[in-house]
Here is the input.
Amino acid sequence: MICGRLLVAEDSPAFRYLVASALRADGHHVVEVSNGVDLMDTLGGSLIPEWGAAPFDLVLSDVRMPGWSGLDALASLGQDFALPPVVLMTAFGDDELHRRAKRAGAVAVLDKPIDIDDLRRFVIQFLRRKVH
Here is the structure.
């Protein structure tokens, strides 16, 4: 099994716990943040402008969070930094949000409710593709 370094940004404690616990059970190293400000601090503090790489293989972020939305964080940081791949999760996904997310650089937008086993498979498949 391929294990990755993952950042999970989710303001719902129960859903964040569910996602992080399931991913840890698969062997991934998971860092959790509960809002957009912590997402920005964690990502921004770990990136080097233009040439650096993030210490995460994948970021899973809720779209609507206090402070910064996941989409705003992606759009803002993505302009100046080499971000890790970002997957956005939302309970409010419409076609326009999906288009905006793709334009901002999201590798995927997952609509809630998300089946946790589907999410686990998605992460494993994504990391396999990244390795090969």
User: Anything to note?
Assistant: The chain has a mean pLDDT of 88. Helices lie at 13-25, 36-45, 70-78, 95-104, 116-131. The beta strands are 5-9, 29-33, 58-62, 86-90, 108-111. The first strand starts at residue 5 and ends at 9.
